[in-house]
UniProtKB/TrEMBL annotation, chain A:
UniProt keyword annotation of Transcription regulation present: no
Source organism (scientific name): Roseococcus pinisoli
InterPro entries, sorted: ABC-4/HrtB_transporter, ABC3_permease_C, DevC, MacB_PCD
Keywords: Cell membrane, Membrane, Transmembrane, Transmembrane helix, Transport
Name of a matching Pfam family: MacB_PCD
Transmembrane segments: 55-75, 296-321, 342-368, 388-407
Topological type in the membrane: Multi-pass membrane protein
Entry's localization field: Cell membrane
Primary localisation category: membrane
Protein name in UniProt: ABC transporter permease DevC
Domain ABC3 transporter permease C-terminal: residue ranges: 302-415
Residue ranges, annotated region (Disordered): 1-26
Domain MacB-like periplasmic core, chain residue ranges per copy: 56-269
KW Coiled coil (keyword) present: no
High-level lineage: Bacteria, Pseudomonadati, Pseudomonadota, Alphaproteobacteria, Acetobacterales
From TrEMBL, chain B:
SUPFAM superfamilies, per database record: P-loop containing nucleoside triphosphate hydrolases
Keyword Ribonucleoprotein: no
PROSITE patterns the UniProt entry points to: ABC_TRANSPORTER_1, ABC_TRANSPORTER_2
ABC transporter domain mapped to chain residues: 6-236
Cited SMART domains: AAA
Single GO molecular function: ATP binding
Keywords from the named record: ATP-binding, Nucleotide-binding, Transport
Protein name per Swiss-Prot or TrEMBL: ATP-binding cassette domain-containing protein
């Protein structure tokens, strides 16, 4: 080896070169905190990057888990959001419902007189009874019938404001007229297009021929694929029911009234056969029925958990085999003075990296799927930032748990066995 | 004279417990002077490796006292032992380089626990160390592209890069042919001598005994010759 004939020349800190004492090999300053985190993370990344197929498998696993959780939470949110579409579209300050009404598609009737009783309060401007029932709608093109939600109300009173309703108040006062919800599912027929082409035309509701005079926007709910709005009088022609009952009362207050105070006063005023609710309370009441009164919420939570468990097993496998196949290198690092904590940070760093590089494409793919599936199912699948954050935290936690399980394998790296 | 970097008194060590307890080291005394190169020889199973792991703070002590680089090892905590290891350069029979790092990055790993150096300094010094072991042209290669002898030279560079106060090597030439084995130990000797770093090297290999300042022979857990330091090293051999 000629090239290294005089190696000491090449060592700038060799003692005979600069006349200093030999390095004391004294304890060195500890690395800064930033380095104590950055360097293990970098080592983790270099290790992951070295084995492309393993990295790809891990990434696919995390991505799969992300997409699964996104879809499950997306469906769950969409169903609950759409469950409350009808009530959410209503615009009034206070609502009255029967205490035993669980969901708007099968309301418990309450005495209509309660609506008029509220007028005793000086801040109540209007109290409009609303009628809810289900009937069938015949698709004008195919002739097929499908269940539809009927909403009967005094459109002119203005206590409830569906988009589009204000312009057709007069038309709805004519006998046997109705307005159709254009956001209903397409199985009801291309009503919006037909109306734009021909103006008002006759449709069949239940066994009755009625005239379509306008369009509103509400959106399908859990219990109803489509909605039809008509006046109170027309509603009574379609649906047989007791004249003294209603299903929901929408109350509009005078400008400047203190809503909470009026609610309190109405609660004191009215007997126990009605609940006095704000709009938010009404929507939450309906949502809580779907969330807690049905297994739907649990199904999606369970689906999400399964995705997380599968993802965790994949990440754990990858991290574990990474450690197992590098066990002598890890032991060497321990012999060189790397602490267990440092090496644990390397493993946790790998977990964090996998969480990020799996989540990001998972987010992109889910976004795409939300769009496609949303269009196909008419479910409002929306990528809320808060949902993305929640899923990232879940994926991060999944990888962190996998990392913590894999860290235990580091104990097998014993530097005393290296010699 | 400075305190000896290694000072062992009546080291006794046994593996196993109860019925299976087997004494491996019996009453070992050994002192290594600053800058001294000591070769430890002896038949297989005589306890050489065990002794090395005790000095290297890789194993907890049982009986006896051992001062290594000023740190008392008997009763030392795990954290104290980890800290001591950072001041010792280890060379193993297998190079144990990290396969996913280049030669230069592997050498730099010996300095990443040293807060006194930044990344640029670490890589520069790693490059200089590789140059010193004749691998300047191979600094950016992964271990898989190096020969056995070259890998072991990277391991030598790594052991020395962290400014160690002591080098411990266990049969560093066992996996190498004669020529590369001699190259590696001569390099090790020259670099260590140049910096005054003492070496304790376990070997079976008669071809490399020439680098020693002193040869210590072990048999059945005891030192049978060479326990006392003959001449004090410290100058280039
Ligand atoms: N981890 C261990 N557990 C139990 N016995 C061991 C262990 N390591 C070594 N030994 C035993 O201790 C004795 C000395 O081993 P060792 O120190 O490796 O000797 P040498 O390096 O001189 O060959 C041998 O009989 C070996 O079988
Ligand atoms: Mg041995």
């Amino acid at each position: 080896m000629n090239e290294i004939a005089n190696p000491t020349k090449l060592l700038p800190w060799a003692p005979e070169r600069n006349g200093e004492e030999a390095p004391a090999a004294a304890a060195k300053p500890a690395p800064a905190l930033a380095d104590a985190l950055r360097l293990p993370l970098r080592l983790a990344w270099r290790q992951l990057r070295a084995e492309k197929s393993r990295l790809f498998a891990a990434m696919a696993g995390v991505m799969f888990a992300s997409v699964l959780v996104f879809m499950q939470l997306g469906f769950r949110g969409a169903l609950f959001d759409s469950a409350t579409n009808l009530l959410g579209a209503m615009r009034a300050d206070i609502f009255l419902v029967h205490p035993m009404t669980d969901a708007s598609f099968r309301p418990e009737p309450l005495p209509r007189v309660r609506a008029y009783q509220t007028l005793a309060d000086p801040d109540v401007e209007l109290a409009v009874p609303l009628y809810l029932a289900q009937s069938t709608w015949r698709n004008p093109e195919t002739g097929r019938r499908r269940a539809v939600q009927l909403i009967g109300l005094d459109a002119g009173a203005g206590a409830v404001d569906f988009p589009g309703l204000a312009g057709i108040v007069e038309a709805l006062k004519r006998p046997d007229t109705l307005a159709f919800d254009t956001r209903s599912r397409p199985e009801f027929g291309p009503i919006g297009r037909l109306f734009a082409e021909r103006g008002s035309f006759d449709v069949q509701l239940g066994v009755r021929r009625m005239e379509l005079v306008g369009l509103v926007e509400i959106g399908p709910s859990f219990g109803a694929d489509g909605n039809v709005v008509m006046s109170e009088t027309n509603f009574r022609r379609v649906v047989e029911r007791g004249a003294s009952n209603t299903d929901l009362v929408a109350i509009k207050l005078r400008a400047g009234a203190d809503r909470a105070a009026v609610r309190e006063r109405l609660r004191a005023l009215l007997p126990g056969d009605v609940l006095v609710l704000s709009h938010e309370e009404l929507v939450a009441h309906e949502r809580s029925y779907w969330e807690n009164g049905t297994p739907i919420g649990f199904i999606f939570v369970f689906g999400s958990l399964m995705g997380l468990v599968v993802g965790m097993v994949i990440v754990y496998q990858i991290l574990f085999s990474d450690i197992a196949s590098h066990i002598s290198e890890y032991a060497t690092l321990k012999a060189m003075g790397y602490s267990n904590g440092y090496l644990a940070r390397v493993v946790m760093g790998s977990a964090l990296i996998l969480a990020i590089i799996g989540f990001v494409p998972g987010l992109g793919l889910s976004w795409l799927l939300y769009d496609m599936v949303g269009k196909a199912t008419f479910l409002p699948l929306v990528m809320y930032p808060s949902r993305a954050a929640v899923v990232f935290l879940l994926i991060f936690g999944m990888c962190a748990i996998a990392g913590m399980l894999a860290v235990r394998k580091l104990r097998d790296a014993n530097p005393a066995d290296m010699f | 004279m400075a305190a000896p970097p290694v000072d062992l008194k009546s080291i006794t060590f046994a593996y196993g417990a109860g019925e299976l307890r087997r004494a491996v080291l019996r009453d070992v005394d050994l002192t290594i002077a600053p800058g001294e190169i000591v070769l430890l020889t002896g038949p297989s199973g005589s306890g050489k490796t065990t002794l090395l792991t005790l000095i290297g703070a890789l194993r907890a002590m049982q009986d006896g006292t051992a001062r290594v680089l000023g740190q008392e090892l008997s009763g030392a905590s795990e954290a104290e032992r980890v800290r001591l290891r950072r001041r010792i350069g280890f060379i193993f029979q297998n190079h144990n380089l990290l396969g996913f790092l280049t030669a230069r990055q592997n050498v730099a790993m010996a300095m990443e626990l040293d807060g006194g150096l930044n990344e640029t300094q670490r890589l520069k010094r790693a490059g200089e160390m590789l140059e010193a072991v004749g691998l300047a042209d191979h600094a950016e290669k992964p271990p898989s592209q190096l020969s056995g002898g070259q890998r072991q030279r990277v391991a030598v560079a790594r052991a020395l890069a962290g400014d160690p106060g002591l080098i411990l090597a266990d049969e560093p030439t066992a996996a190498l042919d004669k020529v590369s084995g001699q190259e590696v130990v001569h390099l090790l000797r020259d670099l260590a001598k140049g910096r005054g770093v003492p070496i304790l090297l376990v070997t079976h290999d008669p071809r490399i005994l020439d680098i020693a300042d002193r040869i210590v022979a072990m048999e059945d857990g005891r030192i049978v010759s060479g326990a006392q330091e003959a001449t004090v090293g410290g100058e280039a051999a």
